[in-house]
Design goal:
The complex is a heterotrimer of chains A (about 220), B (about 230) and C (about 190).
Chain A lengths: L1 H50 L5 E3 L8 E7 L4 E8 L4 E8 L5 E8 L15 H8 L24 H25 L4 H9 L23
Antiparallel strand pairs in A: 1-2, 2-3, 3-4, 4-5
Chain B lengths: L2 H11 L10 H7 L3 H24 L9 H23 L1 H7 L10 H11 L4 H31 L1 E2 L20 E2 L13 H34 L1
Antiparallel strand pairs in B: 1-2
Helix pairs in contact in B: 1-7, 3-4, 3-6, 3-7, 4-5, 4-6, 6-7, 7-8
Chain C lengths: L1 H14 L10 H7 L3 H30 L8 H23 L1 H7 L3 H4 L3 H12 L4 H29 L11 H16 L8
């Protein structure tokens, strides 16, 4: 009897320590969960307000396709789209405001793990970051960096990040067009003028591998 | 135990990063702004101290065979607590450090000190060991951050200090105090290359200082002998 | 589907190499890269454990932690899974494949505290990878680790004959050489499958 007890003692000890840890963690989680959720909620609201101010937003229930995660209809017209793109270091999550005539009203990067000083500039509250994000206002159709025939000046040293943001905005606009088109027929007209802005990049097709020659893209 | 000697060891002669050469991953990865460096350093200091105390408290009742597993659970517990608290109270830091906060679990400094020090020493000594070793880690991180941030982006105190509006912020938005324009900065120092290079140079500097010290001591002993 | 897998693989092996760009798994990287034979032994063990851990932790996270609302226990659960897994693999190999055990046995206990293993599992969760993507990321992350460590071992074997200042002895010169490798790997960062 004593011998079997000896054998189980280490396992029991480990179990006890693990149980104690789980208990304490549960308490800490209970104490912080509300606050963490509130912060997430507030960050999201703040980002939505900054890209397309409105009194209220309602989730349209659009399906998460791996790129466009959610579409919220803003009260008074337009949408705010949450998009996730893979940047140079990891995923970039952003909020894109799209007006009812399918032009971008602003972007806000809520989460990214891009390189500090390069790609991270895209989401920063700095002069450079603001200037980068401001370029997206009024863009419609396919949004691309200048090197690919678009109008967005990429952040120097962070071409990949800049391209990812462009791709996210394009996806957001396309998703809203699909949504708007499905809801009411006349909106199709609005697609016309915006599609004029589509510039097909001469040197780029889908599934290409690029090694930009001009500036190093490390961001 | 002599506290003065203990602090000297923790920060200098037995510095966890530069001399024991452990816990290198996070050191290089996050030392890009002062905000990250101080945040990470203090997080490790707190976790290390708590783990040292708990391990020292239970050192006499834990069975030998599952010793390491129990250490790991204790460490993982404290890491999660700090992680949750950071998410709730300093979300900017939690975002900036990302996966490197939970990765403190496998930071060799903590399990190393549990195994080498606190499982053999009194609670009081273990407490101070945690504080001083944590301090040594923080000092190295701050040095690396200052070097990489100043030369890599031309600022000091990024994320923490703000040149323009309020001087001190905790929300990670501070752009830092600009010393010279971004255009003249060697941006490569902020990239992985800079992390490896800076730590390599710091380590060489430390070895140089230690060998100088050793030589002086040898010379002195020789003098005493004669 | 295929595109995402190719892009994950390419990212894990070259663009976001675990060692040269994400700083994960440096302790074993510097510790065992001094000889080619130990480097390959360690690599095999790391690939194996990283793939297994990715698969098991994904199942535990999806079917146990999330339904039970225990997301905050992720770190604790993952590290325990890794520790137990390493122990089991060690026991299994010792009994059934002694030849493989003698090749990678001594490296297995070191792997528990290898941050690349916990790192890959945490990144799988953070990036919301599905089961297949997690396994692919775990495997290719291990391949990236192998690439880095084998390349570096060959450099270190030559470093022994190099003439450098005495202060740089040991890890310091290794880190400086690794910095040059990181620079070279940065060349991959423009590469991306859209």
């Amino acid at each position: 009897m004593n011998k079997t007890l000896q054998m189980f003692k280490p396992g029991l000890m480990l179990l006890m320590v693990a149980a104690a840890a789980a208990f304490i963690l549960g308490l800490v989680n209970l104490a912080t969960a509300g606050r963490i959720a509130a912060i997430a909620e507030e960050t999201m609201r703040g980002a939505m307000q900054s890209v397309l101010p409105a009194a209220a937003y309602t989730d349209t229930g659009a399906e998460d396709d791996g790129e466009v995660e959610a579409i919220y209809a803003a009260e008074g017209g337009g949408w705010v789209v949450r998009v996730t793109e893979s940047g140079s270091q990891g995923l970039i999550t952003m909020m894109v405001g799209v007006s009812s005539d399918y032009a971008c009203t602003g972007i806000s990067i809520t989460e990214s793990s891009e390189t500090a000083g390069l790609g991270a500039v895209a989401g920063q509250q700095s002069e450079k970051g603001e200037a980068f994000r401001a370029q997206f206002v009024g863009q419609s159709g396919t949004v691309a960096v200048t090197k690919e025939g678009g109008e967005i000046d990429a952040i120097s040293g962070a071409t990949i990040t800049s391209k990812a943001v462009c791709k996210g905005v394009t996806a957001a606009i396309a998703a809203c067009q699909a949504l708007g088109g499905a809801q009411s027929a006349p909106v199709v007209e609005a697609v016309g003028p915006s599609s004029e802005a589509v510039v097909v990049p001469a040197d780029a097709g889908p599934g290409y591998v690029t090694l930009p020659s001009g500036e190093p893209s490390m961001g | 135990m002599n506290r003065k000697q203990q602090i000297f060891e923790g920060v200098f002669t037995n510095n966890p990063v530069l001399v024991q050469q452990i816990g290198l991953c996070a050191t290089m990865a996050i030392s890009t702004t002062l905000f990250n460096g101080i945040g990470m350093g203090l997080s490790v200091l707190i976790i290390l101290t708590c783990c040292n105390v708990v391990v020292s408290l239970i050192r006499k009742i834990i069975p030998e065979q599952v010793r390491l597993a129990i250490f790991v659970v204790v460490i993982a517990g404290f890491v999660t607590i700090v992680d949750l608290l950071l998410q709730a109270f300093i979300p900017a830091l939690s975002n900036a450090l990302g996966v490197f906060i939970p990765l403190i679990v496998v930071n060799c400094i903590i399990i190393g000190r549990a195994e080498a020090f606190s499982s053999k020493n009194s609670v009081k000594d273990s407490f101070f060991d945690g504080v001083f070793q944590g301090l040594g880690y923080t000092v190295v991180l701050i040095c690396m951050c200052l070097f990489r941030e100043l030369l890599g982006s031309g600022t000091i105190g990024g994320g923490l200090l703000n040149g323009a509006t309020s001087f001190f912020t905790l929300d990670g938005t501070g752009a830092g105090i600009r010393i010279f324009p971004q255009e003249y900065a060697a941006g490569i120092l902020v990239l992985p290359f800079g992390g490896f290079l800076t730590l390599g140079l710091l380590m060489a500097l430390m070895q140089h200082m230690l060998s100088k010290r050793e030589a002086r001591r040898a010379a002195k002993e020789k003098e005493d002998d004669e | 589907m295929l595109a995402s897998i190719v892009s994950i693989s390419l990212g894990a092996i070259l663009v976001n190499n675990f060692i040269f760009s994400q700083f994960l798994g440096l302790c074993p990287f510097l510790g065992v890269s001094n000889k080619m034979s130990t480097a390959t032994g360690m690599s095999v063990a790391v690939i194996f454990v990283m793939t297994m851990a990715s698969a098991i932790c994904w199942v535990i996270n999806t079917y146990l932690l999330i339904p039970l609302g225990l997301k905050f226990m992720q770190t604790v659960a993952y590290i325990l899974v890794i520790a137990v897994l390493v122990q089991f693999v060690e026991m299994f190999l010792k009994k059934s494949i002694p030849s493989l055990y003698s090749a990678m046995g001594i490296f297995l206990p070191l792997i528990t505290t290898n941050c690349a293993v916990l790192g890959v599992v945490l990144l799988n969760t953070q990036n919301n990878y599905n089961f297949l993507e997690s396994v692919v990321y775990g495997f290719t992350g291990g391949v990236g680790f192998t690439l880095a460590i084998v390349l570096f071992a060959s450099v270190r074997e030559r470093l022994e004959f190099a003439d450098y200042p005495k202060a740089f002895e040991g890890f310091a010169i290794c880190l400086v050489s690794a910095a040059l490798f990181a620079l070279a790997f940065m060349g991959f960062s423009g590469m991306k499958i859209m």
